[in-house]
Target: Ribonuclease P protein component 1
Amino acid sequence: MRRNSKERKNRASGRPQRKGQEIAGRTWIFRGAHRGRVTAKNILWHELIGLKAKVIRASHPELVGIEGYVLDETRNTLTILGDRVWTVPKDVAEFEFETAAGKIRVNGINLVGRPEMRLKKRWRK
Model:
């Protein structure tokens, strides 16, 4: 490990320093076989990682227009890889996901919660 003398931080040599930067050039990993099974009815229960997403509306104006692939999903945020890596809060934004079935709009409040716990929620149809 090398020591960055100016900022006084340790850094690993030869590895990217920012989250998601190491896979920025490898978008082929998002083309899974199960991506065609996402529809407007089941997107709330489906895996979002790997889908192409765009922020349509948000309470913060700088978040509007962010688009790219979903890298990671936590309880309250989506990490989107576009021209850079963005962490977008779910509860203040409306997302548009691009799937084989077309473009699907989802309010971020419906996505709040851990991905594995969303399966147990009951949604009104």
